């Protein structure tokens, strides 16, 4: 594996001597690493054919290898004292300190798995957060921190339950968006900032929105971002279950959706639609069925069918159970339906109703999914055979995926577009977009490299809250409180200096362990409530829980960014009492 120094030397060779743009240089390094060429010396001493295999261009490969050989011949390591001096003597001026610092920062980001092209699995793996479920250690831990990173930690863990279809990268991005919006609101209330926010000025107009901890966040869909779940996915066909990976199932659903949407576009919509009767629909047997999803002995499946009147619901469900006797053995058969608004009320809200059948929060979840995709004149039945093991946040994710799958299958069968399927999203950095609207977006970020445009001309170049930034913020924000604060009531006072200053490495390790304990405490809290609250109620309570345990600081401008103590025992006390 390449060392930090090897990477920096090679990166400096490509960007300074060969004047290759940073992102192109990083892409070349990744290609070279794929053929086990990880340093200047390895490139210089390897066969030319190996370099060509990575660079894909004979002339460029030969030129790169010649440059590496020249470096070794001169004994110039491109960044050493002698090398810097020769570069300065030859050109009159060497790289500026700022440029060298930026290159080192980019190299460090590259080593951490930063904004270089990676597979979704590689990205999610690089963002993993520490977590500890040791209740004894959690209960005795007292941290010193300010409020913003605690909001981020709350949001990231909350989203495991309220938006379980989102990968960790999206949860970090959304959490940082909440922190940004909350911090600006607080700054305005303290008189530290003035004027309308970017959101108020319309920079997020036209973008989808989600609610996190009671705050609406503008998001950007990450089209084509595939990340795999852990559950087994299968179809019932001829009495057998044919197991497929979730990625294969999603790919087929997306292909079917695109094909059917094209067909629908070419089909002329009739001006009048005769109302369908319950018996007609029952006889047609037009139920669209999702994949059967199993996890820890629990199995889920959803079905969707057209409905034009609330009175049809009972007959349709009875006919479904009669046609599929195995459904009567299920633990839960929850249902939900939505009807379009009456004629003349184009912007009104149609009738909707749901029933959990003992699966707490299931009805509200189904209605939420149907609202998000604007599914109307649709009845959905979600069936679960309980396996005896509580699934925590996975339950919400699987139920949401099943409902989306049933709606997509209904589209394939009928051509009626009721589902767009859940997509991963980024939290939009509207303030950053406004600030840099007149200049080119900074390279190296997700969505960077193109000019920003106002929302009226599209979302090209809109900045996002990067998950790496959010993760690093969490990792550096939670120190152990000094003993005098840990043993006293919560106080924002400045701690006394320790007699023996720990090394930076020891501090980083301490902060990482503390973050794991904090996230473990939050997970225990949310897991205890997840099966007893709806998604909306869990989101609403999360902010109240944060307020109850956040560090105490001065209420005025002097408290802006100030640190206080956080007792993890107080977080554990938020758990549901059995």
Automatic annotation (TrEMBL):
Coiled-coil ranges (or none): none
A single BP term in Gene Ontology: GCN2-mediated signaling
Domain Impact N-terminal: residue ranges: 296-407
Pfam family, any one: Impact_N
Gene3D superfamilies with a match to the protein in the record: Impact, N-terminal domain (3.30.230.30)
Alphabetized InterPro entries for the sequence: Impact, Impact_N, Impact_N_sf, Ribosomal_Su5_D2-typ_SF
Low complexity bias locations: 245-271, 490-505
SUPFAM superfamilies documented for this protein: Ribosomal protein S5 domain 2-like
Region (Disordered), start-end ranges: 81-103, 228-284, 484-506
UniProt GO cellular component terms: cytoplasm
Transmembrane segments: none
Family label: Belongs to the IMPACT family.
PANTHER family, alphabetized: IMPACT N-TERMINAL DOMAIN-CONTAINING PROTEIN, IMPACT-RELATED
Protein name: Impact N-terminal domain-containing protein
